[in-house]
Each structure stands twice: as C-alpha cells, then as structure tokens.
Amino acid sequence: LNMAALYRELGQRDKALELSRENLAFARAHNLPRIQASALAFVGKDIAGPATYDSSIAMVRAANHIWDSLGFTGAEFYNFNVVSIGEMYVNSGRVKQGLEVLRDVYQDARRTKSIHSHQHALNALIAVYTRLKDFKTANQYLVELIRIKDSLQSQVYNEDQARLEFRYALGKASRDKEMVARENDSNKALIKQKNKTLVVVATAVLLLMIGIGIVILLYRQKAAVAKELESSNTTIAQQKEELEATLEKNSKMQRHLLS
After folding, report:
1. DSSP secondary structure code for residue 49 in this structure
2. DSSP characters over 55-84
3. To bridge 27 with a disulfide, which of 4, 35, 78, 197 should be the other Cys (CB 3.0-4.6 Å)?
4. Mean pLDDT of all residues in 98-120
5. Which are the contacts of 29, defined by CB distance < 8 A and separation ≥ 6?
6. In Å, what is the CA distance from 119 to each residue of 16, 51, 57, 109?
C-alpha cells in the first residue's frame, strides 16, 4: 500500500492501481480486513472516471463498511473516504447529492474536532462552490479554513516553544547538576587540603611545644646544676676558711710553746 501511495504521488496512476489491486487480492485471500479496506478505497479512487464513478463510489463505501465493522467510524482516513465519495458525486454531475455528503462530513469533523478531516472537507466545499460560481459561500469556507490553519500554526508554534523550553529546562537542570557536582568535588578537595594543612599546623605546634618543653627542662637542669655547684663552692670556701683558721691557731700555739 505504501508503494501504491508513492506511485500515486508521482502521478503513475496505472502502476499505483496495479499494486492496489494486488494488495486487495492478497488481503481477501488471507482475510486481512484492514488491508482490504485500505486497498478497496485506493482502487475505488484510482479507477474513478466518467464511466466508473458508480463503481468507484461503491468500492469506497464498501471500504468504509469494513472500517465501521472494525470500530473506526469517524477516523481521519474514514472521513477522507467520505470526502472522496462527495467529490465523485459532484464530478459525475450529482452536485446536490455530493454537497450533502460533503456538508455531513464537514459537520461531523467540526463536531468531533477532527482537524485534518475538517480541513479536507473545507477544501472540497471551497472547490465545489467556486466551480458553481457561488463565491460568497466559497469565501466563507475559505475564511474558516484560513482560521484553522492559523490556529494550527499557532498550536505548532506553542508546541515547538514548549519543547524548546523543556529542552532548555532539562539542559539547565543537567548543567546545574554538573555544576553542583563540580562544586562538591571542589569543596571536597578544599576540605581535604584544609585537613592536610591542619595536620601540618598541628604537627608543627606539637613539635614546637615539645621543643619548648625540652628547652625548659634543659634550663631547669642547668639551673639546678649551677645552684648545686654554687652550694658546693660555698661549702668549700667555708671549709677553707675553717682550715686556715685552725692552721693559724695551731701556729700560734706552737710559737707560744717554743717561747
């Protein structure tokens, strides 16, 4: 079906019709209702012409009957098929019947807010009323179509803006997370460096206190030795004075005895 649609877009209707018929035969043989419905609609639209409009309309209606049974009534592709039926009625000269079909699908699309179906129906109605030279009605539908397209563009812009804002917020959150992680790493490194500095300072203070303690101990030991030495010198001086006094006394006694 995708290849058939591609050939249809390229204007190769015969090749598109051939592929659509092959898909239809395959779907019927293997009981594949969705493929069968799509292929029926494609074949019906591809064979549409002055001599085949009734057959084309019947095939597209049959496709929608299958979609009805599958619960897809009112889906975008379902409404596109209805628009094609309305256009084929108009092209075959049954303008009134075609307009009734197009107005019905137009109203259904508005009621269900099916934007693409709404636009598709409006395009078909504008073309029919322009062909009928009812430019006033055609213009009314054209204004409505422009309004819808502007609304869609605004919606797309808002969605794009929302996506951009979301991406920005997501990127900002990611950048903030990375920044926090870097700050945490930096803080950890700073704390680690501070801890190292504190250890060095504490070690230095401890060594300084030990050094001061040693100096004080040595000073006290030196002071004690000096005091002890001074005491010893004083004792020796006293003993020397006592000895000299004793010697002097003995000398006097000896001179006295001799005389």
Report:
1. S
2. HHHHHHHHHHHHHHHTT-TT-HHHHHHHHH
3. 35
4. 93
5. none
6. 25, 29, 21, 9
